[in-house]
Specification:
Elements (H helix, E strand, L loop, with lengths): L9 H9 L7 H11 L4 E4 L6 H15 L10 E4 L3 H15 L6 E4 L6 H7 L5 E4 L1 H9 L10 E4 L2 H6 L3 H9 L6 E6 L4 H10 L4 E4 L10 E7 L3 H12 L7 E4 L3 H13 L4 E4 L5 H12 L5 E4 L14 E4 L6 H8 L9 E7 L4 H11 L4 E2 L28 E2 L42 E5 L5 E5 L7 H15 L1 H8 L11 H11 L4 H19 L16 H8 L7
Parallel strand pairs: 1-6, 1-7, 2-4, 2-5, 3-4, 5-6, 8-13, 8-14, 9-11, 9-12, 10-11, 12-13
Antiparallel strand pairs: 15-16, 16-17
Helix pairs in contact: 2-3, 3-4, 6-8, 13-14, 15-16, 17-18
């Protein structure tokens, strides 16, 4: 059905044409005529089906035909459970009121009161608000709701979940009884029906197909992950897939949202977190970055499950399953917008299987187990010790050269820093490459399956003592006499020194004690100072070193000591 068939105001039709809206969605086809007729309405429709346009277009049409455009209080109040949804509604309203005299405004939490107070003091046509901040302004008599013509309660089921029943009652009590009330909800739960009976007068009921049937264009898969570490590893592999253009990762708590967002950033993906503790300005900036494709992954709590409209969102990933089955529908509804294809992944631990059954019962659809992606480039790959050979999972080495092979060399695949060692590795114990090109000894071993594998020993193997001891035992058995002689300590021959130097060094260096060494060092320092002509005072030093104050003073003045 074309919008022109509704006989809407020409400004509305022009705005629809500029935005590319030609045909009305099912909810718009049924709701627009009833709203223009002034009837109360109770409609069941999820976000992403054109619900906002279903009440925005007819209400603006009525305001543009209203001759009494000057009044202090708002004529239309649209109540939203979250700031994100309120901002989305305001953007939609202003897109259709551009070029008209209609005044619009928004009051939500997380921002300063000053601009809102200034805005409420002027004539206003449409006010979009969240319950808490609107009641704050009502308590200070900053807003007058006595002239409200239409009251829209959007996402009524979410209002109930967030405990906004009493605030909604307080707001409704200040409005005229003759007002038109429109209630939109994703489901008709008993609580929503009680709310409708309380605030609506003989409403028209519009109930479209259940929300889960609207997600046929979204591929849903689940993955088993019993621990948070397994979930993180799985999330890393999923995000490494090239098909993920933009994704929202839903998580249970605010703290975890910040933590996971930081880890995703460390993985090399542009990420941000979105939750209730962020100020409205920061939340707005995060959503803008998503729209500008400057953020790839958004880690969010359920506060963003409704009202988040990102055109290029390709994937939704449920890191934690929602506690309420209905929230699952709203989460995955962030992708596959306007009939586009979308993908929804859910990670399920053993403790979450009950939640999974509740979701499948609510949606009437069994979620199939997805195929886990292969390990991405971040996963270390074990290199075989020999080209074309694979070491068995467990084996006992059999040495072919007992003198050069080590019991532990064959099984160790890592250096001291935890890195993988490759054939022909040249390096020291710290993992650095040696400049002199040192290559460790090669040793070979034979595994249980009879295959000979080669190991390149490091420069300083940890089992060096064991290898040496093993070689000494073998030599002792074969030739005891030669082995004992080889183990005898050999005295080093003294160097050919001049006779005068031997006399000087004999007193101190030959003593072999710290005391004698210190004494000899003092004598050497004294003789060296006299021979060089230093006049400064000697500093006593047991190590034989000395310092001269006079020499330092002369050097500072630019003079040199006399030879």
């Amino acid at each position: 059905m074309n919008f022109k068939q509704f006989d809407l105001h020409r400004h509305i039709l022009q705005a629809c044409s500029k935005q590319g809206f030609e045909k009305a969605t099912p909810i718009q086809q049924k709701a627009i005529p009833e709203i223009i007729a002034g009837k109360d309405l109770m409609a069941c429709a999820q976000t992403g089906t054109g619900k906002t346009g279903a009440f925005t277009l007819p209400l603006l049409h009525k305001l543009l035909h209203d001759t009494n455009n000057v009044q202090k209080g708002p004529k239309v109040v649209i109540l939203s459970p979250t700031r994100e949804l309120a901002e989305q509604i305001l953007v939609s309203v202003r897109a259709f009121t551009k070029g008209t005299q209609l005044k619009t405004g928004m009051v939500v939490g997380g921002v300063g009161y000053g601009p809102q107070i200034k805005m409420l003091s002027k004539p206003l046509d449409v006010l979009v608000a969240t319950p808490g901040r609107l009641i704050d302004h009502m308590g200070e008599n900053r807003v007058d709701l006595s002239k409200v013509q239409t009251f829209v309660l959007d996402e009524a089921d979410r209002m109930l979940d967030m405990g906004f029943v009493k605030p909604v009652e307080t707001i409704c009590e200040t409005m005229p009884y003759s007002r038109q009330t429109l209630l939109f909800s994703a489901t008709f739960s008993p609580g929503v029906e009680r709310l409708a009976k309380r605030f609506l007068k003989d409403p028209e009921v519009i109930k479209l197909a259940q929300s889960h049937s609207e997600h046929k264009n979204i591929t849903q898969s689940l993955f088993s992950a019993d621990s948070r570490e397994q979930k993180k590893a799985l999330l890393r592999d999923l995000l490494a897939d090239s098909s993920v253009w933009q994704a929202v990762v839903f998580i249970k708590t605010k703290h975890q949202a910040d933590k996971i967002a930081k880890e995703i950033q460390d993985w090399g993906h542009r990420s941000a977190s979105l939750h209730g503790d962020l100020r409205q300005s920061k939340r707005r900036r995060v959503i803008e970055l998503m729209h500008e494709n400057k953020v790839k992954v958004l880690v969010a709590t359920d506060v963003a499950a409704r009202g988040l409209d990102i055109k290029d969102l390709s994937h939704v990933i449920n890191f934690d399953l929602p506690q309420v089955a209905e929230d699952y529908v709203h989460r995955i509804g962030r992708t596959g917008r306007a009939g586009a294809e979308g993908v929804a992944y859910s990670m399920v631990s053993r403790s979450e299987r009950g939640l999974l059954h509740a979701i499948e019962k609510f949606t009437g659809r069994k979620i199939e187990v997805g195929e886990k992606p292969g390990p991405s480039s971040h996963a270390p790959k074990v290199q075989p010790t020999k080209k074309g050979a694979k070491a068995p999972k467990s084996f006992t080495p059999k040495f072919t050269d007992s003198a050069e092979s080590g019991e532990e060399q064959s099984t160790k695949r890592f250096d001291k820093k935890g890195g993988f060692k490759k054939d022909g590795f040249k390096g020291n114990s710290k993992g650095g490459f040696k400049k002199d090109g040192f290559k460790g000894k090669k040793s070979s071993f034979r595994s249980n399956d009879g295959e000979t594998l080669s190991v390149q020993a490091s420069a300083k193997p940890s089992n060096q003592k064991k290898v040496k001891h093993h070689a000494e035992l073998q030599a002792l058995i074969e030739d005891p006499k030669a082995a004992l002689e080889s183990q005898m300590p050999k005295r080093k021959k003294p160097k050919n020194l001049p006779s005068n130097k031997k006399k000087r060094m004999g007193a101190g260096s030959s003593a072999g004690t710290p005391k004698g060494s210190a004494k000899g060092g003092k004598k050497m320092a004294s003789r060296f100072a006299k021979s060089k002509g230093f006049k400064g005072k000697k500093a006593a030093n047991t190590s034989g070193k000395f310092a001269s104050k006079g020499a330092n003073k002369n050097r500072s003045r630019g003079s040199r000591p006399s030879a």
